[in-house]
Fold each of these.
Amino acid sequence: MTAKPVDETDAVKAAITNDISITRSGAVATIVLNRVRALNALTIDMRAKFAEAIPRLARDTDLYAVLVRSDSPKAFSAGGDVRELIALYKTDPAAACQAFADEYGLNWTLDCFSKPTVSLIDGVVMGSGVGLSIYNTHRVAGERYRFAMPETAIGLFPDVGVAHALSRLPNEVGTFLGLTGRLIGRADAFNLGLVTHCIAAERFPEIEDALADAQTIDPLLDGMHESPGNGDLAPHETLIAECFAANSMEQIMDRLAKVQGEQKGFAEGVMADLAKKSPTALKITLRHLRQASSMGLREVLTMDQRLACRCLQGYDFAEGVRAALIDKDNLPVWKPADLESVSDAEVESYFAPLPSELELELPTREQMQALRI
Ligand code: QUE
């Protein structure tokens, strides 16, 4: 399975959607997410329109930079439209699997993109939205920036290649974020390098205007950056490092249960969070994060494709989406229901190569360069 071709000569024509717009002003192209009613949950059509524009932008010699922002005051993007994916899987399983392939192909294209790319992020950025922004050369956070990879809550795993970044964060913070799905603010995100600049959202239009004038991006953003101060995670750093260094979910829970003293309350909160997540998703996520620390992004995305197709075929993903987003009862009934009942063999089966026609085949970075993406 290959991601949708990046060459515009044979690019699949994107369905026309107004949920994303791409406009040009001077030297900057601006991509605006404006599916405001759904917190910019990204649909297949939105990603297709985004991907389709990239070769043209990359080869436009008069273009200095590409900017991505949202028209919603609450969200950059709350994630992917997973309801759409689950519905599609019921009628056309191969198309649902292909939708993941196209998304991961877009993530890879963004990482290989040859011009400065800037995301202006205020409000939440989660899941698929992280995949549109984290590969940008410049990631600017407004005051209301909130980051999370919440997929274990819906029986999925932190995908869009983000295991590559999470597995490289210090002190097991990425393991903590990927398993618990907890939200962090911009101070933590800046200290972790998930964002590059903190700038008041009311100044975002100035950035767009300056880039239209082809003003040099680094001095521009460096000059506007304001220190976000200490994050909220700092007091819990040691606990996170110690508990989340374990190599099984059972051990992580065990270590959290043994925490005494002033961190006890925090540890109990984390255990309560983890107890709500899909046990299968937790085990897959932990294993994926451990492997990803020694893999390149391209290989991580190929592994994401295996895991995503297996999650579509499994039980918990559809159940998680039902409970969180369709019936909204927030009472998923996971199968298996507890960590001990998820066997190593079951976890292992998610990671096995797919039938060759379903494996994600991405061009190498060198091949992307030759395509002048
Ligand atoms: C975990 C998730 C997601 C989620 C809730 C979770 C996610 C996602 C959405 C979402 C939000 C708003 C929408 C929508 C989907 O919710 O990835 O269609 O309008 O996209 O607990 O991973």
Amino acid sequence: MTNANLYAHLRANFPADLNAVAVETDSGLHYTWSDLERASAMLANLLVSLQLPAGARIAVQVEKSVEAMMLYLATLRAGYVFLPLNTAYQSAEIEYFITNAEPAVVVCSSKNFGWVSKIAFTCGTQNVFTLNDDRTGSLLERAVHCLDQHRCASSQDDDLAAILYTSGTTGRSKGAMLSHGNMRSNAQMLKDYWGWQRGDVLIHALPIFHVHGLFVAIHGALINGSKMIWLNRFEPKAVIAQMPRATVFMGVPTLYVRMLAEPTLNKAVASKMRLFIAGSAPLLKETFEAWRSATGHTILERYGMSETVMLTSNPYSADPRYANQSERRAATVGFPLPGVSLRVCDEDGKALAVNEIGGIQVKGANVFAGYWRMPEKTQEEFTADGYFKTGDVGKIDERGYVHIVGRSKDLIISGGYNVYPAEIEGYINDLAGVAESALVGVPHPDFGEVGVALVIAKSGAALQPETIITALKSRLANFKIPKRCIVVPELPRNTMGKVQKNLLREKYQTLFAKS
Ligand code: MCA
Ligand code: AMP
């Protein structure tokens, strides 16, 4: 029987010439395929030498680097479970993840070692290493003494490969458990659907602690044996400058908006590019059209989730399942990907007809097994016939294209990062002088959507919006900080006393409108 381990599958697709360049960084470093293979073997051997229990979690909060990617590959090949954490998370957030996931190994930046190791050791983690984006840190110092050959662990499709925390509507994050089979099947299918070709070169400019940068982009390149041009940070000018040497780019809509503001973006600079892919948040029709007129390329928008990896995509070329449709349509997320069953249902679970709006439900080999140690929550999110309720609201049109028109979950997507109002409101409500608060998402020209906090003061308390923002900054990841805080005398409520967020969204709709 073949090994279902995702790394084994990626490795089988490396090019024959292992001395070819696999990753080229913006600081001028070149890593060959052999370097990826050998360095990830050393890191895998280091993990194995720690004699961790089966299913051990390796929690990683480090700046983006090729070595961080190697650690991910090492975790896969050693058969452990990768748990990536956004570098913006602060101590209370990290404490929750570590307490909840009980990782056997924590890897952090040297600058955070003091507070992260304190949390980790208190929670019972035995091993805390450091890894920095300049190839320093105790992890590499230890790995350098390990053998550079490693026999990939033998895995089954259902074996856990990664846990991705995604915030919950009640404010508590849930760990989505993804298996080797979930990710392998999705990567293999996307390789075909997006027409990956020998000679493709991917510009990798996304963070690597979420599905988009870590799985869709990295798996896409590795499973095709394609080189990556690796940028540790997204800089619009730098990405545009790399376009003549590349063929594929993936980004959240904000990255496209920022590149469109650059005078160096034009048809000539993008002429060698084969494919621009967008996702993680809605791509405005305006951005889709502006990109087409600036570069001559039509962005391919797709839709996915941490729980499911990729679900739908606009076509790369004609999709025979949908009357040979090859058009990439603005404001749609395309067709359900091969192997994904997608339906739109009403609140009673009845499947709806074409163009009727309802909850999007999905099923397929890509759909996760459930939330880490939350069996009840998992059960709630699945239907009796095994469909996962995405929490996204949409419709399927007469041509088969899926449209996302809203969300039933109270979620703000800001620059591709998710912000759950309940979590932020909880922090605001704990501040002195606050009686109540509501966070709503409003349109924003750069981030697509941002949070605005409406706060009611306790009687007699004099609240300053700046004080609230400062207090939040010391507790929460920067992308969760409301972009505006407004002290209000009251909040609109329905007859049940529930705050009517739709009215607030309407009222503050144009707060950040372009003049
Ligand atoms: C930074 N800030 C943000 C965000 N990022 N605020 C709201 N939303 C954000 N996304 C804050 C900063 O802390 C700073 O605050 C101020 O906004 C300006 O920061 P700036 O320097 O402009 O930010 P940046 O460092 O350039 O980052 C912007 C970014 C970044 C490059 C767009 O947010 C990013 O890389 N986003 C991509 C996220 C992603 O990969 N998502 C995929 C999730 P202050 O001035 O107060 O310090 S995976 C997913 O969704 C799935 C499943 C899927 O379908 O793909
Ligand atoms: P995450 O927590 O990162 O898993 O976020 C997944 C959510 O991002 C989905 O449930 C959607 O609400 C949203 N999303 C992803 N891609 C798109 C897209 N192309 N258009 C609209 N929303 C999207």
